[in-house]
Amino acid sequence: MKKYILIAILTLFTLSCGVSSQDENREENTNQLGIQKAPINGQPVSINQNISLVFTAELKPSSVTSNSAYIVNQNNTDIIFDTAIELTNSNKTIVFKPYTYFQPSTTYTIIITTAIEDVLGRNLSENYSYSFTTAADSIDNTALTIRSVKPEVNSTSALVETDIVIEFNKNISSQAQYSAAQYIKVTDQNTSLEVPGKIEVFNSLLKFIPTVSLNYDSNYTVELMSSVTDLYGNSNIPSTQDKWDFRTKQVNGSPTGEGFSSIWSLNTGINSSHLAISGTQIVVARAGGIDFYKIVFVNSYPTLEKLSSFAIGATITSLKMKDSYILVGTNGNGVYLLTYKNSIQISLVHNILQGESIFGVNFSEIGVDKIYAVGPSYGLGIFSFNIITDELLLTNSFNTSIVGTAIDVMDINDTFGQSGHKIYVADYDGGVNVIDINGTPISRTDLNISVKKLVGTALSGSSFAGLDGVVAIGSSGKIQKLNLDGTLSAVKTDFPGGISDVYTYINPELGLINYYSSYLDGLIIAQGESVSEVISTGGSVISSAYIDAATDPISNLTKTNSFILILNENGQLGIYNVQQDSQGPRYEYFSYPGAINAPISISFFDSYFDIDQVTLDNFKVYDLNSSNPSSPIAISMTKNINATLLTVSLQPDVNLTSGHDYNITILPTFSDKFQYIFNSGVVKNLSFTMP
Predict the structure, then answer these.
(1) Which terminus of the chain, N or C, has less C-beta within 10 A?
(2) Edge-to-edge strand order for the sheet containing 488-493?
(3) 3-class state of residue 427 by DSSP
(4) What percent of the chain shows pLDDT beyond 90?
(5) What is the signed CA dihedral for 39, 44, 49, 53, rounded to 10 degrees?
(6) Among 453, 427, 426, 423, which Cα is nearest to 435's?
(7) Residue 641 to residue 39: CA distance in whole angstroms
């Protein structure tokens, strides 16, 4: 909001360019706050420049306000020029950040009043002023318009954790982020209640971030309430996009409407406890040993085939896989190092620490040549493993006085940041210990939760900050995130159902996805830390793992296909499709024949093709210039699927005729695996003229 000041008051200030001798003397007076450095050297200032003013001492932040530090446009001396004010340089520097650019060829005056004081309570001896002139820069007066909105107008599947975003055609003023005025109003049509939230500005985006989750299956209205300006002060032009509606998606517990489904399940009939996956191999811990499975893709969908079992005469407490090796921690019989080099049978390599209760085992993140084992009474053991000779040696050990009552262990090699390679050990006492790779203890962080498991990784880039670090899962189902240096993160989540496991996956299109195994709710899918879906799995999920569809050598699927393997408390293994796709197969493009005897190529897109439904009966090819244009040409067909793209080649039994017009009719008589029909049930016609 613009503030008005009396012109008469301005006569109290000095409006000269440069710092007065009084200002210079003030710097030498230790009993007085002074100005150390004037912001400008007398040269014209760019219209998009921030203005800084350095003081002789650390300022008291509460004294720096828009009433004690501001800028006046000398061409309109009774109006203050709106800026944000920040303190930098250990609170010795005031930085004025204009909401919009300065006007070109205009004189402005900085005014600092005696209300500003330093941390010792000292003030300026008098009000201070300093004038500068802007350069004759060009300005952009093109209209400011809305380019797009999110969620889209009349969309029906918005996430309940969504932000409301209005994108303009150019960068906008940041004033909306600091103003008390209401810029975006979001109303729940079912309750007529406004959604609370905050405004953020980022370049051309005006964002409304709700401070509560939206309701599932509810209609909302978004309205732009206040005028927005670009960086040159031009206001947006009113449009139909100033107000729009959208609907949040339904709660998912079945495949109906959204494509979430159980596509394979196996009830082992045995109480299982742990699940581990490496490539296409899977091991499941149960009473008396482990079962070994491989992933088999059938018509582009994963199933499990049991290969063998391995008996272990102790209760299994921890299970990990890496490359062709398996680590098993037990209660009372130490650690088993197993291998499945022939990909079918499991064989024993070593059984170490016999007689010890080992509750946490892990391979090093960088390879199987380093192995960790922890136990409440044993402490931490670090072993080196030679994969050529199968020799296993203890290289470092730490007693419980260093690592506490150890319960789980992992390491992270942060090659993207500054944290380096560190080991993390959780203990019964509710803490996480950080140890460097040479075995030197670094720190211990008390989480005030009884930690039972550690997960996490180092991810490149701040866009993956949702789980870049270590996540400690408590026995009560709460989770607490730690930064890679072991310090606490602000992220702490308490799901009503309680969390038993977390798996993190980077989707190339959506970014960071977290799959939370829930004691009550089943499988919880979140993007970053925001819950987007809850899938019922018929029992408390105790472990989960992501199946990489790109491992299928036949269908050559890509990571846009998402499958999760879960293990529930009843010993049931299940594979769930978690790729959202509520549309049937869609036409993408076609290529007409390059020669009279060449095939016609047509491509379709879908995440879940049922290629058995795509047959010759779905296609008709007509020669419109023949003696019988309503009679289709005899054709044969071949199909090729590559990930989400299906290409159909139609080969006419006779040569086509140059100069003739042809029509291809695609009948909506085929669907995907979730019974969504091609082209929403509408006939698709394609035409071409043969060269």
Answers:
(1) N
(2) 451-457, 469-474, 479-482, 488-493
(3) strand
(4) 19
(5) 10
(6) 423
(7) 65
Compute the distance between CA of residue 72 and CA of residue 28 in angstroms, rounded to an integer. 28
Q: In which domain, by residue range, is 49 found?
A: 7-133
Nearest partner of 565 among 304, 319, 343, judged by Cα: 304
Using alpha carbons, select from 557, 545, 674, 576 the residue that is nearest to residue 300.
557
Q: What is the pLDDT of residues 352-379, one digit of tens each?
A: 999 888 888 998 877 788 899 988 778 8
pTM for this structure?
Answer: 0.50
Q: SS3 letters for 578-615?
A: CCCCCCCCEEEEEECCCCCCCCEEEEEECCCECHHHCC
Say yes or no: 224 and 284 in one domain: no
Domains: count for the chain = 4
Residue 124's φ and ψ, nearest 5 degrees, are: -65, 150
N- to C-terminal Cα separation, the chain: 67
Position 254 pLDDT exceeds 50? no
Q: DSSP letter at 229? A: B
- Read out DSSP for 350-400? EEESTT-B--EEEEETTEEEEEEEEETTTEEEEEEE-TTT--EEEEEEE-H
Q: Which has the closest alpha carbon to 69: 117, 7, 138? A: 117
Chain segment 399-419, per-residue pLDDT in tens: 656 665 677 787 777 655 556
Q: Which of 247, 271, 290 is the last residue of a domain?
A: 247
Q: Same domain for 226 and 84?
A: no
Q: Is residue 254 part of a domain?
A: no
Bridge partners (DSSP) of residue 234 are: none
CA distance linking residue 689 with residue 166, whole number of Å: 44
Q: 151 preceded by cis ω (within 30°)?
A: yes
Q: Among 187-191, 504-508, 514-518, 560-564, name the one with the lowest average pLDDT.
A: 504-508
Tokens representing residue 471 in the block: 């996540």
* DSSP label at residue 437: T
Mean pLDDT across 600-611: 82
Q: What is the CATH number of the domain that holds 35?
A: 2.60.40.1220
Q: How far apart are CA 685 and CA 668, in angstroms?
A: 11
Catalogue the E-assigned strands of 146-260: 146-150, 164-168, 184-188, 193-194, 197-202, 205-210, 219-224, 243-247
pLDDT of residue 335: 94
pLDDT of residue 433: 87
pLDDT tens-digit map of 261-298: 565 666 665 666 788 888 788 899 888 899 998 887 66
- Do 610 and 558 lie in one domain? The reply is no
Report CA-CA distances (Å) from 173 to 51, 100, 146, 186, 231: 17, 6, 14, 21, 5
pLDDT surpassing 80 at residue 494: no
Mean pLDDT in residue range 594-612: 84
Q: 470 and 504: one domain?
A: yes
CB atoms within 10 A of CB 390: 11
